[in-house]
Every structure is written in C-alpha cells, then in structure tokens.
Amino acid sequence: MPRLSHRIGGCVLCLILGALGGAVGQGLVATFEVGILLGATYGVAFALLAGPRATTPGAGLIWGLGFAFVLWLAVPVGLLSAAADGMHGMGMLDATRARFPQLVAYVLCFGAPLGIGLGTWGILSREEGRPRFSWPRALAVGGLAGIVGGWAFGKWMAQVGFFPLIAGLVGSHSRMVGVTLHFVFAIIIGASLGHLEAWHKPQIRRAA
Hints:
This protein is an all-alpha fold. It has 2 domains: 126 residues, no CATH class; 77 residues, no CATH class. The protein has 8 helices and no strands. Helix 1 runs antiparallel to helix 5, helix 2 crosses helix 5 and helix 6 crosses helix 8.
C-alpha cells in the first residue's frame, strides 16, 4: 500500500509539472503546440513509464531527457511534420532544424523538471540503510563535468550560431546571454548527474 501511494503521488506530481511545463512552453516558443492538458498527459505518462527507475534526481534527469527527446522526435518532427508537409516531410533535415527551438522547450519544460521532480520524489521511498547523497560532491564534481561538457558542446554551437537562439528563451538576441544560459544549463545538468554518481557508487562498493 505505501508503494502504491508513492506511485500515485508521483503521478500527481508529474501531472502538475507537465501542466506547468505546457503553459510555460507556450510562452517561450510561439510554435509550441503543447498546452496544459497535453502537458499534463505527458507528465502522467512519464511517471508511469519511469517511476520505478527514477529513484534519484540524477537518474530521473537521464530518463526525463530521453523522454523529452523521444517526444520531440515523435510529435513535432514526426506527426506535426507529416501533417504539415505530408509523409515526405517526416524526419527531413530542414524540418528537424526548423523545430530545434521546440526541442529546447521540450527539454526545459518537460524533460528536466519531470525527471528531477520524479527523482526527488523517489528519494522519499529510499530503503533503510541506503546511503545518502553527498550534495557537495555532486555539486562540485557534477558541476565541473557540466562546465567541461558545455565548453566542448559550445564549440559546435558557436559554429552553427545557436547561442542567439538559446538567448531567445529569455527574449534576448545577445550571443553572450545565450552563452551564459548554455553554461547555466550545463552546470545544472552536470550537478544532477553528479547526484546519480553519488547515489550509486557506494552501492556498487557494498555489493563488491
């Protein structure tokens, strides 16, 4: 019964986060087709699919990012492209490039909040004796890894001119604003993945 209550609570949490993500996404991207109702549906679907595995913020973030990417491929790049341009438009490079802002919105409005939220909720069902997070270690190691990864990925983004596009999320066209947001996102993602490492490594040592 406690496990069932925990699953229901996770579904309710993701329903709320998904609805909020749908509302925020429509404000960020003009062509964002997901509203509050569809966003809530996405949230419940994620909770049902990833609930047993999203037991930490880091693990939840990984599942959330994957979920957001698959949704982006299935809905904007797949179904909406087919509806607008016919079956020949599905998955075409130009259609994919044109819908890249929606990928950013899917990650920021659904993938990250749903994953981190459900993973944080998963901590509440932690088994007795399971080691706690090392928050300083997660922030330091994960954040540093995020900076390095953001720097490497930023080289490619600078070449294709994506930084002004990211700046558009906050209503700006400044390249510097885009670079700043890029590294903020990289640090957040790196620190969240650091949570996953801090959680599982002691378990591996104990099993050995």
